Amino acid sequence: MKHRRVLALGAAAALAVGLAACAPSAPEPGESGRSPGPRDATLGIGTTTDVVNFNPVLGNSRTDSWITNLMYPHLLSISDDGTKEAHVATDWGYVDETTGYYEIRDDLTWSDGEPLTAEDVAWTLNAVKRDQAAGTFYGQLGNLDTATAVSDTRVELALTQPDSSIVDEIGFWGVVVPKHVFEPQGSIAEFANDGSDGGWVGMGPFVLTDFQVGQHYTLERVEDYPLVEGGVPGPAEVVYRVYPDVNTEILALQSGEIDVIANALPPAQVEQLSSADGLQVIEAAGLGYAHLVYNMAKPELEDVLVRQALAHAVDYEAIRTVVLQGQAVSTGSSALMPVLASYYDDTVTEYAFDPELSRSLMEEAGHTANADGTFPVSFRLIYSLQDSVTSQWAQMVKDSAAEAGIAIELQGTERNTYLSMTSEGDYDIYAGNFAIMDDPVTNFALSYLPGGAINYTDVDDPELNALIEQGMVTFDEEEKISIMREANRIVHEQVYDNIIYTQNLFFAASDEWAGFISKPSELLSIVNPLSLASAYPVE
């Protein structure tokens, strides 16, 4: 169902009680002002990062996804509780335990007029698998053998073993690219797709036509986009503009230089902007979390006692109260999100903030404090300077750890540098966020299995591995839930991940635009393709 949530007084308090709570709905499009439909208008959007890669199977920056999602479609979309919804695919599932399938729409064309068919879908999957195109998409394909277009509208997946999550996850995370454009370029993992060979060919509501790094990315609408009501996107063009930080973005929004801020608002700005003239604040469900991860390739952090000491040296409630201003809740230090109600296990409880326990654990690990009470080891914590919320709570982590005699050195960097350092293991601790953790089995496989695409700390626990692998081949939902809860207890006990909080997110836009359709996470929010294609100016 198309809807949007607009922050009202008391919404932040309601969020603290439960993530399912939402504020009163805004008027539906058409109830006031102009009706929806195409207009000769430009929608300006602010971002704080540049595009790293225009190839949609490789992008690792949020701006990469925001831009390429407007050109390259996904088979499935997502609802607020993490369940998948139709998009390019109209039906999906399993023929048997080792054969999956998608039925796709028959009315879609690439921007050069070529039809989008099942052959594009199958070729994309096989090419990403063949060329090992590093990223989340490739990480979903571990159990894919081959994809075959058995008709113009049906793709079948031959799996190497049963995998009860792969169809949903490929459908949501994987994009479709035009075979006739990408295949002649050779390896899909090496194709820059930067427009230098004549521009871009996409199948989305907009196509990139011009950009200047550090300045802007301009996309023009296509005139035939059947996935939006009416078949034609509302804005004539969408322009992403790059700003150094969220405060500059807010000033640009208030001055009318842009109409939307793509990244989530810092909590301190939510109430202020919700009451500001000319602005609206729209809520998006959160399916991700903020966390600390300890690099077990470092000798000291290989010791679980040290990781436990660090976990008990974080004042979680203070972070949620002071930095998040009540707009976040505890997960119980659990990697299973409360929003995924059937999987959530409330017997897993949050690590207690206990500096004395931290000291005892450090001593048990063989570390002796100096005369001033500080242990002669220190840990380098990295974070993105563009993430104002994490920047604040990273300082609080340093301060609370100091109470336990543990020294933490903060290293804030530009976001894309931070992402590179994370993937290269160039840190002791990293503080950050995962935007969408929608399927427990897949998320655990990517995060904690050896070779997992986001297993940045090289977790390799035989008992945990066996449980995750068992969960992957289990189709009975109750049995799968039991398996993943047990896997989650191991992650918690061994501190393979330290989840600080989960939250719903809030996004600011000019009230001169309407029709936005909110989707979960910062990655999708109100800048997802359907939302921007549905947006229209109000008079």
Q: Give the count of helical stretches.
A: 17
Note the beta-strand portion: 15-25%
The radius of gyration is 23 Å
Strand order of the largest sheet: 9-10-11-2-12
Largest sheet: 5 strands, mixed
The total count of strands amounts to 21
- Let me know the average pLDDT: 91
* Quaternary structure: single chain
Structure classification: alpha+beta
Low-confidence stretches: 1-33
Helix content range? 25-40%
Shape: globular
Distance between the termini: 25 Å
Structure description:
Helix 9 packs antiparallel against helix 11 and helix 14 runs antiparallel to helix 15. The two termini are 25 Å apart. The chain has helices at 11-17, 62-68, 118-131, 136-139, 166-173, 179-182, 246-255, 267-274, 304-311, 316-323, 355-364, 388-403, 415-424, 440-448, 462-472, 477-494, 529-534; strands at residues 5-6, 42-47, 76-78, 84-86, 89-96, 99-104, 144-149, 154-159, 206-212, 216-221, 237-242, 260-261, 279-284, 289-294, 378-384, 407-413, 429-434, 498-501, 505-510, 513-514, 536-537. Helices cover 29% and strands 20% of the residues. The longest helix is centred in the C-terminal third of the chain and has 18 residues, at 477-494.
Short characterization:
It comes from Microbacterium betulae. Helices cover about 30% and strands about 20% of the residues.
Features:
539 residues, alpha+beta, five-stranded mixed beta sheet, 17 helices, 21 strands, 29% helix, globular, disordered N terminus, peptide transmembrane transporter activity, signal, ABC transporter substrate-binding protein, SBP_5_dom
